[in-house]
Amino acid sequence: MNEQVVEQHDEVVEEIEALETFSLSRGLVNYGLTALTFLVVGVVIGLLIGQNLAGSTEDLINEAVNAAVAQAREEFSQEVATQIGNIEISAAPSDGGNQQAQGLDTNQRYSVSIENQPSRGPEGAPIVIVEFSDYRCPFCGRFAQTTLPLIEEEYGDKVLFVYRDYPIIGGQSSYQAALAAECVNEQGLFWEYHDLLFANQQILGEPNALFDIAEQLDGLDMEAFQACFEEERYRDGILEDFNTGRELV
Fold first, then answer.
1. What is the Cα–Cα distance from 94 to 14, expressed in whole angstroms?
2. In Å, how far are 57, 95, 241 from 164, measured between CA atoms?
3. Which of 124, 130, 159, 216 has the most crowded Cβ, counting Cβ within 10 A?
4. CA distance 12 to 207
5. Which residues contact 108 (CB under 8 A, 6 or more apart)?
6. 232: left (phi over 0), alpha (psi -120 to 50) or beta
């Protein structure tokens, strides 16, 4: 990778890290709530785009999401503390943090653009789930490998699932994973690569891991993939996703 590409990598990571620092300066509780909003159960934001969904089905989906959020709160707060540098959870006011977490409105709808984003499911689905996710995030991995398949199995023709990037956990390695996935998306193999990245989270910080994983994809043009990655073709799109994610909190 040439010096110009390295400098570009550094610039985008610095921009993301600068935004993370801003979040941290507001205290662990606020950072934890940000992370809870975007990362627990894979960073799920529900958006109703039609009124033709049966009320009972909508209620079931809402209950499933609410239950997942409630179950993960305590465990996730510990994970956040570890991931952002072993900051002690006790550094945040415990009562206030708990009250804020309990006060999260998991039924709130957001207006989120899904144009030109990787998606799967029927385009006319009455419910759209938009995921702002990080390939280095353990909870995102759990959602991708466990929760999402269950949602698709249970509500397949009623849900369109859309992926957007929120590389907040792993710094440069998170950004590079997002970049690699966007480059693979050019060749129509996004979801295959998405699944492989989450299945191999433990090695994503290693040199050449993204390329080694990409080589497992049948039909991927590796030269085109490498060219896209090295020129950081989707740098601006990743930053746009990241900034949009922050604005929703």
1. 31
2. 25, 33, 6
3. 130
4. 19
5. none
6. left
Predicted pLDDT of residue 51 = 39
- Residue pLDDT, tens place only, 29-41: 333 333 444 444 4
pTM, full prediction: 0.65
* Region 83-107 average pLDDT: 45
- DSSP string computed for 30-95: HHHHHHHHHHGGGTEEEEE--S-S-HHHHHHHHHHHHHHHHHHHHHHHHHHHHHTTS--GGGS-HH
Q: Which of 144, 120, 233 is nearest to 180 (CA)?
A: 233
Q: CB of 98 within 8 A of CB of 33?
A: no
Mapping DSSP to helix (H, G, I), strand (E, B) and coil, where does residue 103 land?
coil
Show the tokens assigned to 10: 């550094």
Q: Measured between alpha carbons, how far is 85 from 24 in angstroms, rounded to an integer?
A: 11
| 118 backbone φψ class: left, alpha, beta (φ>0; ψ -120 to 50) | beta
- CATH number of the domain at 3-247, out of 3.40.50.2300, 3.40.30.10, 3.40.228.10, 3.10.450.540? 3.40.30.10
**Interaxial angle between packed helices 28-39 and 55-83, expressed in degrees from 0 to 180 and rounded to the nearest 10:** 130
Beta-carbon contacts of 127 under 8 Å, excluding residues fewer than 6 positions away, are 46, 47, 48, 49, 53, 58, 61, 155, 158, 159, 160
pLDDT in tens, 156-173: 788 899 999 999 887 889
- C-alpha angle 191-80-205 in degrees, rounded to nearest 5: 50
Cα separation, 235 vs 240, whole angstroms: 9
Q: Could you tell me the residue ranges of all domains in the chain?
A: 3-247
Q: What's the start-to-end Cα distance of the chain, in Å?
A: 36
